[in-house]
Amino acid sequence: MTDHILSISQDPINVPKISFLTMLRLGLFQMGLGIMSLLTLGVLNRVMIDELTVLPFIAAGAIAMHQFVSPARIWFGQKSDSQKIFGYHRSGYVWIGAALFTSISFVALQVVWQLGTSLQNTGWSLQTYGWSALLALIFGMYGLALSASSTPFTALLVDITDEDDRPKLIAVVWSMLMMGIVIGASISSRLLERPEICGTALLAYDPSQMNKLVDISKLQTTINPVFIILPGAVFVLTLLATLGIEKKYSRYGIRGNMVEREDQITLGKALKILTANRQTGIFFGFLMVLTLSIFMQDSILEPYGGEVFGMCISETTRLNIPFGIGTLLGIGSTGFLLIPRLGKKQTTKTGCIGAAMSFCLIIMAGFSQNSGLLMGSLFFFGLASGVITTGATNLMLDLTAAETAGTFVGAWGLSQAMARGMATVLGGTVLNLGKLVFTSPMLAYGMVFALQAIGMLLAIWLLRRVNVVEFQQNSKQVLASVLESELD
User: Fold this and answer.
1) Which helix (H) or strand (E) holds 114?
2) What structural domains does the chain harbor?
3) Per residue in 254-299, pLDDT tens?
4) How far apart are CA 304 and CA 381, in angstroms?
5) CA spacing 20 to 30 A to 42: which of 86, 192, 240, 476?
6) Contact (Cβ atoms closer than 8 angstroms) between residue 291 and residue 48
7) Of 316, 261, 233, 39, whose CA–CA distance to 150 is shortest?
8) Radius of gyration for the alpha carbons in the chain, expressed in angstroms and rounded
9) Residues 345-390: tens digit of each pLDDT
10) In whole angstroms, how far apart are CA 154 and each of 30, 73, 92, 174, 276?
């Protein structure tokens, strides 16, 4: 209590503003998250579905568990408000969480090897399902560790900035996330570029059954070091990003708990706010369809490159590079090129049309076995995703009452995390269904990309019904009544 009183008496004028270099330094943490995302959705997912022939539904479902535990961010956010670790409200949580999720990623990989071995030895037995369940549990723990680190980090970004420089910091940090995916793809593809884990060199033959089996020991020898080197580098990036920042720049003690952040919004409250009136409900539906349509390919893109194009693990990892570069260019150019000319709704619609077209091109690349067209399609998809992200975010800010801005944005953040988990599972489920219906892998994967294109067209239909003027006329009263009911 004494510490709190002393911190409130701190003179806000003496707290320095963060520089652009400090923003870049903070972005190193998000860069690390981009690398970790690549390892889980890029490498682990590909190995499970292609090399180990794990059912796509089970592989995607296990990985998606790290998204489904996202409501835990509420508890971690509130905990970092009230209880210090190592003398800090935020930094201690960030460090411990990072140490845990980087370590758990290696544990998850070892469970994947056990799952693959059990599948080869006993098929889909009780033991194999047991390893699958354990993998889902491990990814749930990974998600909790991620929330324990990333949520206090987001709160730290609020603590150390004022309203005028916060948008710049968020733009820098988000761009660094995409850079992390691109850099992680380049480094991991180099580390995984080994002839012994590509094509027929990876196969071991069972003389008794004459079945082609992947030599898991070869995969372990090559991939295990990657899951030591890169997560270790991510932990170092976390320390470089945050050491000394909170002590020098935090305004937390001055502000107290006046701002309601994303990590303070319960899932129930989020749904109430996002369906509070006709326009918030329509826009929430649009964002849900949009999120599902964009991220369904998360769980199937690398397996698509492996199974349809015959790419090695190192090559499918590089598929993230054109997508990441395209996304960065899309975000960087939309704000000052497209929105001023087209407006926010038309810009978002243009991005949705571009994404739908890119999914059609990805399907064409598969039928023609043209890897160059695939890379170009992914760049185009990244560009469209960047346009959609910027356009939809700006539109969302228009559809937010100023009095409840933090609450609305927080509610969207939580619902988006859940939607991303649903998208990952849906992608794996549709692929699973496609493999049961079709004998051709191309048709099975094509089902997923076609569904994404249809989802984009549905998103455009919902977007046409969004009316900013109608929202602004009645949102304040409706949102106020929702928030008041939370206090009753």
Assistant:
1) helix 91-122
2) 9-193+226-257 (1.20.1250), 265-488 (1.20.1250.20)
3) 654 444 455 555 656 666 666 666 777 788 788 889 989 999 988 8
4) 16
5) 240
6) no
7) 261
8) 23
9) 888 999 999 999 999 999 999 999 999 999 999 999 999 998 998 8
10) 10, 11, 13, 11, 26
Distances (CA, A) of 269 to 198, 264, 396, 415, 488: 49, 10, 18, 11, 13
Q: Other C-beta atoms within 10 Å of 167: how many?
A: 11
Identify the weakest region by mean pLDDT among 206-215, 225-234, 279-288, 301-310: 206-215
- Residue 205's SS3 state is strand
Measured in degrees and rounded to the nearest 5, phi and psi for residue 85 equal: -125, 130
Structure tokens at 192: 């995984």
- Tell me which H or E stretch contains 331: helix 320-333
List b or e across 109-148, with b for residues whose CB sees 16 or more CB atoms inside 10 angstroms.
Answer: bebbbbbbbbbbeeeeeebbeebbebbbebbbbbbbbbbb
Strand partners, 204: 213
Structure tokens at 394: 């700006």
pLDDT over threshold 60, residue 206: no
Q: How many CB atoms lie within 10 A of CB 389?
A: 19
CA distances from 194 to 316, 317, 345 (A): 13, 13, 47
